[in-house]
Amino acid sequence: MLEEVTHHHPPESPTRARRGYGAWLRDRLAHLPWTVFLSREVIAVFGALAAIVLVLAGATALAEPGPLWKSLYLPLLDIFTMGDPATDESPARRVLQLIAGFVGLAVLPLVVAATMNATEAFRRASVGHPPAEGLTDHIVLVGLGKIGTRVLAQLRTTGHQVVVIERDSNARGVALARQLGVPLLLEDAGAPGVLDRARIRQSRSLLVLTRDDGENLDIVMAARESNPQVRVVMRLYDDDFAATVSRTMRTSYPDATTRSRSVSALAAPSFAAAMMGRHVLGVMPVERGSLLFTTVDVEGHPELEGRSIHQAFRENEWRVLAVGTAVEPSSPGSTDTLGGPRLDRPGFNWRPSQGRILRAGDRAVVASTRRGLDFLMTGVQRHPTGPRCRSEP
Question: Is 283 helix (H, G, I), strand (E, B) or coil?
């Protein structure tokens, strides 16, 4: 529902010049990740196989003098179990054939495994869109769920360069990333080497927005090891855990900018204020707490009514920012579409003097903490007729 009612300009797709099929094919082949076939594991396995073949070829040349091609050809046939039994040849040749067969049994599974791993890595990288080698000063975004998708769309409207990491190829934001032409790695960000392929060392910021708190912390710690100066925004659910992580990260990396935000803590003030029946104008996170901006009718509030703005101030709980006239919601032009006050009408004074007395009939814009708002709501007095009495919490 929130996505449906949110109005924003959809990100524009990058303009692509129309080119012929041959040019498109050459560009596609040039950007394929051929380097995965030159990984350390593949080179080690095939290098060991080549060394074994050369040793067996030298031994075959000594045992069976002949052309060089035959000395290489026969060991290869034996290793791949494609040769005939050497029953009519010399004992040395028969021994070498047995040795080559055992070597083939030991080496071939490694060759197949290394080839399959390289092929799978090539397939994953081909499905995605790895960043260019010269990319710098970009933002690495991990997670393309509901929040990650909307963050990506917003970043693209501001012109930032983004590299996205998402392990689920069916995630809701993958299609958007491909549509925008954003570099995309369909891999687990916590796996070794993935952040390096996203060029985390050359990046300016890291946004980790997956649903798993522990996984987010692991990714951030790995990124900090590669780039201690990278700016990090980490999504965490548990507020106590977020506070602990924030303190620890700031202690471990004092020169870096670290902020952690708890989703539940950010959402709680709005829900709590809505349940109290007050129109919340906005919520601003301040370190581990939040400031709520709301409107309060002065009448019935002993902490406000009859006091000056200076006297109504309570440290760490609330402060009066503006004063206007409380108008009934039925009056024309007095409310907005949400039923709250129109703060842009001339009746609000945003620079009231500290000696201004708050009276019944005034409406105040208040910045408060959650505790202060709760006190204001529970301490209100109702006196439509007769004497005033303080309501019980």
Answer: strand
Beta strand spans in the chain (E): 139-142, 162-165, 184-185, 205-208, 231-236, 258-262, 280-286, 289-297, 318-325, 362-368
Amino acid type, 279: H
DSSP-assigned letter for residue 65:
-
Q: How far apart are CA 193 and CA 50, in angstroms?
A: 28
Is a pLDDT exceeding 90 seen at residue 144? yes
Phi, psi of 207 (to 5 degrees): -115, 115
- Interacting residues of 319 by C-beta distance below 8 A, sequence separation 6+: 313, 366, 367, 368
Q: What confidence category does residue 358 fall into, taking pLDDT thresholds of 50, 70 and 90?
A: very high
Residues 128, 190 contacting (CB under 8 angstroms): no
Residue 86 has pLDDT above 50, yes or no: yes
Other C-beta atoms within 10 Å of 218: how many?
14
User: Residue 283: its pLDDT value, please?
Assistant: 74
Q: Over the stretch 313-350, which tens digit does the pLDDT of each residue have?
A: 988 889 999 998 876 544 444 443 333 445 555 578 88
Judging by DSSP bridges, how do beta strands 139-142 and 205-208 pair with one another? parallel
Q: Which of 287, 331, 314 is nearest to 368 (CA)?
A: 314
| Amino acid sitting at position 244 | T
Under DSSP, the state recorded for 384 is S
